[in-house]
Amino acid sequence: MAKKYWQILKKGRDGKTKEGDSDTIPIEQVPKKVLKETMRAVKLIGDGLYGVDIKETNGKVYVIEINDNPNIDAGTEDKVLGKEVYLRILNHLIEKLEHRK
């Protein structure tokens, strides 16, 4: 791997893993350019539930990957909204199913 790179998990020589830095912030605090790139990326795939890994560095935004089966980890994705995040996801999925009928 390249030196000075960032990743979520990095395995050391001793076999232990170390997590990279990440932040959970309210959507209102997400920089507009990050939201713009995120939306641009998912529009290429379609309407669904995605996890988008974004890196912002030196004023530039990079889409690292789009996960069509994203993790929704307790203590991370629900750090800001709590249980409300799960209700929003479930309501969105229910709406999609109802529109299919």
What is the count of structural domains? 2
Number of strands: 4
Helix content: 25-40%
Distance from first to last alpha carbon: 48 Å
Which structural category do the helix and sheet elements fall into? alpha+beta
* Uncertain ranges: none
Major β-sheet, in short? 2 strands, antiparallel
Classify the beta-strand content into a percent band. Answer: 15-25%
Structural topology:
Layout: E1 9-11, E2 17-19, H1 32-43, E3 51-57, E4 60-67, H2 84-100
Antiparallel strand pairs: 1-2, 3-4
Tell me about this structure.
The chain contains two helices and four strands; from the N terminus they run E-E-H-E-E-H. The chain has 101 residues and is α+β, with helices and mostly antiparallel strands. It has two domains: 24-70, no CATH class; 72-101, no CATH class. A two-stranded antiparallel sheet has the order 1-2. A two-stranded antiparallel sheet has the order 3-4. Strand 1 and strand 2 (17-19) form a beta hairpin. The longest helix is centred in the last third of the chain and has 17 residues, at 84-100. The radius of gyration is 16 Å and the shape is globular. 0% of the residues are buried.
